[in-house]
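Q: What would this chain look like folded?
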Amino acid sequence: MRARRRRRTATLLVAVAAIVSWSAPPAAATAADYRLRYVTGPDGVTRLARWNPCQTISFQVNVSLAGDTRAARRSAASDVRTAVARLSRRTGISFRYTGRTTYLPNGSRYHPWWEDSPAELVVAWVDQRDPAHRSNLLGRDSEGDWADGTGGFAFKSWNHGSGWQLAAGRGFVVINAADTWDLRPGFGRGLTRGELLLHELGHVMGLAHVPTRSQTMYPVLLPRAAAGYHAGDRAGLLAVGRAAGCISVPHDVWPGI
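A: My prediction, written as structure tokens:
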């Protein structure tokens, strides 16, 4: 196989990075191969960061930079919907597709990205070479190169008299259009766009990187026989999904979209 540069993705707020490169075949997996994100609340207590699994999460896609043709952009949007459907199946959380958007997740310290989000989750292709289409949420790797993608979520804490609680309420995935054009569409053999999307959506749900090569949450995107969540990934998604129980989120904390 031809050599290629190491490609990286990152997550924000509680997000980390994924890398793509050629490597040895994955090792055998165990159900324990997952790691979750924890955050510290205003009371100093560390809690599992997760969404309310009993809500329906709306999502939109921005595929304007995902391809040069209408067919290519339609294919990218289809891959996102397929990846979200797989995520839903593994978490037990319902998602509702509400269409395409021109929104690019972007923000600053004084104007957070989630304030303008048209859906609870947005997946968008970005181009860091173009000021009109770049995102400051796209991470960099240890060598300073732009990541292939970044996924993350925003969470809020509240205390309405019964102790501090927290929940994620907005999420994003940004894909580096300039550096991912050669990923194969779909979820088949090789290095695929589907595998990258599944990885970043795992971060959106609160999964962190794992050291086991066989898992999709491994920080190197590897060529696979087929893209999909593996034993450890599935166990992690179950731990942050509907089986973990509902979170009663006040409307004024995360207003519906």
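The longest strand covers residues 165-176.
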